[in-house]
Structures are given as structure tokens and as C-alpha cells.
Sequence to fold (253 residues):
Amino acid sequence: MVDAALVAVVCAYLLTAVVGLPLFQDGGWYFFKIATSGQAELPNLRYTALLPQLPAAWAAPHVADAVLLRHLFSLGYVALPVASLLACWMLARRRAPALFLFPLLWFLLNLVNFSGVSELLSSLYLTWPLVLAMLLAPASRWVWLYAVIAAPMLAGLHPLAFLPAFALALLGAALAWLIPNLRRIWGALALVSLASGLFRLAWTITGANDYERGRLEPDSAINYLMTNTLGQHLLLMLVLILGLTLGAGLLLR
Fold:
């Protein structure tokens, strides 16, 4: 059942690539620049945001078919949630399969947002595997490596990326308090995330441009992040109901 749900959500993301969802809003300009100049667009000094554009930017001088290049561009962005979801599945499927349902529902909820190139969503794709890794395999060396790599990548993604960084730090601190025999490991992971969050917060306070400050206004943020259509409302309600049911079930067990 969980595997079937995984396949369904991955197929949904692949469908967004086929129909060109990453071309919506800012993505249209990113693709236009790549198609005309072969250069990736660095949006508002968000350095990590260049990574999904690299396959299309590399292929642009060699691909004359604009439709094929468009698909490469879209797949570069869709690869982020798909890779993150598969990483979560590999982490949880043998250790705690029920935990995988939380990122699965979250990724399903992300589909209500029409911005396929959102750096804020990308920060969540980067964060979820680390959440499960901290819970299920904190002593593994690759978790440390991923945490050290993810921290600067998270800081370079979005002005609000300090929020998931602080959430990771809070999770690490809570685990260190609850399970003393792994306190040093979880404490160190919490400090790495805290340092990333503080750096991003300082950068946001001192370096946000007019566009970013406008997006942080409550009305703009709500319009950008929340649902607008009936289909989006229904999906949001479905995900919330399923998430609350799953959480209650785990607590009762």
C-alpha cells in the first residue's frame, strides 16, 4: 500500500514535468535565459537554486529542439522532490515504514503550489531526508556528511530557509534530551542546523531585497503559499485529515 502511494506521488510529480509546471512564473524566465544564452539564472543570490537548472544549461548548446530542452529543464526541477521522496522511502521502509507516510503526505501537499521552481519548497525537499535520518540512523557517517553538506545548501536557498534549519536544530535538541546515550551525536547535528539557521536569518535581515521583503508581507505570503481553487482546497483538507489520523494512530500505539 505504501509502495503504491509512493509510485502514485512520483508519477504526479513526473506529470508536472511533462505539462511544464516548472515554467510557471519565475521558471519561465529561467528557461528563457537558458534557451537563449545557455546560462543558468541566479535568482536573488540564492546560490543553491542554480543546481536544478544545470542539466538544461549544459544541454542548451547541444539541443536544437526547444520542446526537448523544456522537458530537460522541467525534469531538473522535478528531480528534487522525486530524489528526496525516494531517499525518505529508503530510510524508512525497513526501519519504520509508518514514518514514511509523513513526508509522503507533505510532498502530496506541495503539489497544491503552482510554483514548480520555488526555493522554499526546495528547502523542504532538502530537509525531509535529514529529518528521517536523524530519527532512524543518527550514528551513521553518511548522515553527518549529509548534514554538513545540507547546512550551507539550505542557507543559500531562500530567505525563510532558517525556519526548516531551526526545526532541524529543535528536533536534534529534543532527541538529545530524550535519549541520553546518543546526546553527543544529536547535539552536534542540532548545532550544525542551528548555525545554518542563524546564518540564514542574519542574511535575511540584512540582505533581503525589495522583492523578497514584499514576498514576506503577510498578504503576499498567504496568496503565494495557500490554496486558491476548489481542487487545491480539497487536496489540502484530504492531506490534513490523513496526517492527523496517522499522527493520532501512532500516538495511540
